[in-house]
Amino acid sequence: MGRYKLGDRAFTIGNAVVLATFAFLCVYPLWYILILSVNEGRDASLGGIYWWPRTFTLDNYYVMLSDRTILNAFWITVQRTVIGTLGSLLVTSLVAYALSRKELPGRQPLLLVFLFVMLFSGGLIPFYIQLIHLGLINNFWVYVVPSLFSIWNMFVMKTSFQNNIPESVVESVKLDGGGYMRIYFYIVLPFSMPLFAALGLFTAVGHWNDWYTGAFFVHDIDLQPLPTYLQRMLSTIEARQMISASQMTTMNQARLYNPDAITPKSVRMATIMIAVLPILLVYPFLQRFFVKGVLIGSVKE
């Protein structure tokens, strides 16, 4: 008996060490970016900063927040995330709800078509041509319209609606004279809030982190989202020119920052933090929905 207890204790300690190491490897890069963003840029370029800022300053954030392009890119990202997530949940859930009803005519052929489209894509060139014909190239709605319907999320929602919503409740609404839309808004939505929260979070993260669409389908810099702006800053050899000389001169004249305190790298670190923090702050508010999600399926006929 003592051996089993000793083995369990060793497993618990080993498991804790592995999980703590993994957590550290996940958190430390973000922490490192944070301390570089609040440290003087030229001082940080000397190296030796690993755990705490050596010379604290907020000038990097002052410079970043004074850039109209960055603020506009941030606003574009917020808009596309909110509109795209809500629109995707609505459209996808309506399709999933319709396909979850066995009385829908042509239900099985439709499911096969959706499955085929999910597995096989037409490719980038046909997609680009389609966007041209729809007038979505260099248009804000290119971020929203193509992503309004997710086949994968539709299959997840359909399965959840079939397995977790009691048919007796649906039949009782029908007996009271309620139609399909009333069932959707008064039965399906309340029963599926944990599912909507989880899929909505994944959809929002996808919108927030998407740089590809802005880089290839939008040419107007005023319509590009923050991830695309960051991608340009971090991957092009012209990254040092992303902070324009005119902006730096204006900031210097306004005496809002110390010229020795910032470098292009330090401003990039501040921009990354601004891009990452909002989506991270969403998780605590949705935590309770994930906890409730464990109970999905507990209601049986």
Give an overview of the whole structure.
With 301 residues, this protein is mainly α. The chain has two domains: 2-57, no CATH class; 68-242, MetI-like fold (Orthogonal Bundle), CATH 1.10.3720.10. It has 14 helices and no strands. The protein has helices at 2-37, 41-44, 59-65, 68-100, 107-119, 124-133, 151-164, 167-175, 180-191, 193-209, 212-217, 226-235, 245-254, 264-293. Helix 8 (167-175) runs antiparallel to helix 9 (180-191). The longest helix has 36 residues, at 2-37. The relative contact order is 0.14.
The CATH topology name of the largest domain reads MetI-like fold
| Spans where pLDDT lies below 50 across 5 or more residues | 249-256, 297-301
Q: What is the helix/strand order?
A: HHHHHHHHHHHHHH
Which CATH class of the largest domain applies here? Mainly Alpha
What's the main sheet like?
A: none
Tally the beta strands.
0
Q: In which range does the helix fraction lie? A: over 70%
Mean pLDDT: 79
Rg is 25 Å
Q: What sort of overall outline do the alpha carbons produce when their principal axes are compared?
A: globular
CATH superfamily membership of the largest domain, which one?
A: MetI-like
DSSP summary: helix tally: 14
CATH architecture of the largest domain: Orthogonal Bundle
- Helix/strand structural class: mainly alpha
Give the percentage of residues in beta strands.
under 5%
What's the N-to-C terminus distance? 44 Å
Number of domains: 2
